[in-house]
């Protein structure tokens, strides 16, 4: 089964604040249709990652920083629930915060192109994220000053990551390639070139959701649920193998606040009783429905 999500135009996010708020309250996510110029910048970043994935294993092995996890990562245990169930994909991660390390890792043409294109993609996605965040914030606190600024002053820039995942037929040895999980960050902006992503919007079943070629999927991570005091539910998701998909690429912008800045919950009303909210609407926190 596939899910039909609201599509908001990148060019008109602010004009559609009400619809954006409503779809995020209901599903914690929406599709954003990109302007062709933005789409080109982002696709270029993805292509540069693909060029690097196609490099020989020894080139990729030299492009690893195991402390920060920027650069290349082979099959791993990012979200899997046990050491015996690694996520079945390779990935490349870029962050502005770790640019110095990435420069240190760069070896040849493919790495240099990847670094350049990733920076441009990172900035384009950061701008969309900040506009999305400010627009959602305007629904919670109408009339309040716009709190978040885009890169380079962005509060998000230090902690955010741009990651490309690559699933190939040799690696896809299980039917579930990435186990069901929540993203711990504020918002994830995701695009992909093949089916496989599934969302669990009701926390009991999964629906396929692949953003169309000119769109990205924007969804709440668990930090967003906290920031919005439970208004926007966390989106649980997984990646599955499908018989017609031999290779799949996806790119995610994991938007994080800067680790050294305070993040204040939106709106007013004093302290929330989180235990009570969780008991009344557990799915908002990704908890199973209570009997
Ligand atoms: O590859 C995808 O489409 C999703 C990957 C994902 O959920 C993640 O890396 O957090
Ligand atoms: Fe994820």
What would you say this structure looks like, in words?
This protein is an alpha+beta fold and 291 residues long. It is 30% helix and 21% strand. The chain has helices spanning 17-27, 36-53, 57-61, 99-105, 109-140, 222-227, 274-280; strands at 7-9, 29-33, 71-73, 90-94, 161-168, 176-181, 187-192, 197-200, 207-208, 215-220, 236-240, 247-255. The strands form two sheets. It has an eight-stranded mixed sheet. Strand 8 (197-200) and strand 9 (207-208) form a beta hairpin. It is globular. The chain starts with 6 loop residues before the first strand and ends in an 11-residue tail after the last helix. The mean pLDDT is 89. It binds 2-oxoglutaric acid and fe (ii) ion. Fe (ii) ion binds next to loops. Residues 156-257 form the Fe2OG dioxygenase domain. This is 2-oxoglutarate-dependent ethylene/succinate-forming enzyme.
Catalogue the unreliable spans: none
Identify the bound ligands. Answer: 2-oxoglutaric acid, fe (ii) ion
The N- to C-terminal Cα distance equals: 26 Å
Question: What percentage of amino acids are in beta strands?
Answer: 15-25%
Q: Would you report the number of β strands?
A: 12
The overall pLDDT average reads 89
Q: Label the structural class.
A: alpha+beta
Provide the helix percentage.
Answer: 25-40%
Total of DSSP H or I helical runs spanning 4+ residues: 7
Overall body shape:
globular
Q: How many whole angstroms does the radius of gyration measure?
A: 19 Å
Largest pleated sheet:
8 strands, mixed
Order of helices and strands: EHEHHEEHHEEEEEEHEEH
Give, in spatial order, the strands making up the sheet with the most strands: 1-2-10-7-12-5-4-3
Pfam families: 2OG-FeII_Oxy (PF03171), DIOX_N (PF14226)
Catalytic activity: 2-oxoglutarate + O2 + 2 H(+) = ethene + 3 CO2 + H2O; L-arginine + 2-oxoglutarate + O2 = guanidine + L-glutamate 5-semialdehyde + succinate + CO2
Protein name: 2-oxoglutarate-dependent ethylene/succinate-forming enzyme
InterPro entries: DIOX_N (IPR026992), IPNS-like_FE2OG_OXY (IPR044861), IPNS-like_sf (IPR027443), Iron_ascorbate_oxido_reductase (IPR050231), Oxoglu/Fe-dep_dioxygenase_dom (IPR005123)
């Amino acid at each position: 089964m596939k899910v039909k999500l609201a599509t908001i135009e990148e060019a008109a996010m602010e004009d559609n604040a009400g619809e954006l708020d409503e779809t995020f309250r209901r599903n914690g996510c929406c599709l954003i249709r990109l302007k062709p110029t933005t789409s080109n910048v982002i696709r270029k970043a993805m292509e540069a990652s693909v060029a690097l994935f196609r490099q020989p294993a020894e080139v990729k092995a030299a492009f690893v920083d195991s402390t920060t996890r920027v650069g290349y990562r082979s099959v791993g245990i990012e979200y899997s629930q046990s050491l015996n169930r690694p996520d079945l994909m390779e990935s490349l991660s870029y962050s502005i915060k770790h640019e110095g390390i990435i420069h240190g890792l760069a070896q040849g043409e493919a790495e240099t192109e990847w670094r350049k294109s990733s920076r441009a993609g990172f900035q384009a996605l950061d701008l969309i994220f900040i506009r999305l965040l400010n627009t959602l914030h305007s629904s919670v606190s109408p009339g309040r000053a716009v709190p978040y600024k885009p890169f380079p002053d962005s509060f998000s820039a230090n902690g955010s990551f741009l990651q490309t995942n690559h699933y190939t037929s040799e690696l896809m040895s299980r039917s579930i390639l990435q186990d069901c999980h929540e993203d711990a960050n504020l918002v994830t902006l995701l695009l992909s070139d093949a089916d496989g992503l599934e969302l669990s919007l009701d926390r009991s079943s999964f629906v396929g959701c692949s953003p169309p070629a000119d769109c990205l999927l924007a969804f709440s991570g668990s930090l967003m649920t906290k920031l919005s005091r439970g208004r926007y539910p966390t989106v649980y998701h997984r990646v599955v193998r499908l018989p017609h998909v031999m290779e799949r690429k996806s790119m995610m912008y994991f938007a994080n606040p800067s680790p050294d800045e305070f993040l204040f919950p939106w709106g007013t009303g004093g302290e929330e009783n989180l235990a009570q909210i969780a008991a009344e609407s557990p799915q908002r926190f990704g908890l199973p429905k209570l009997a």
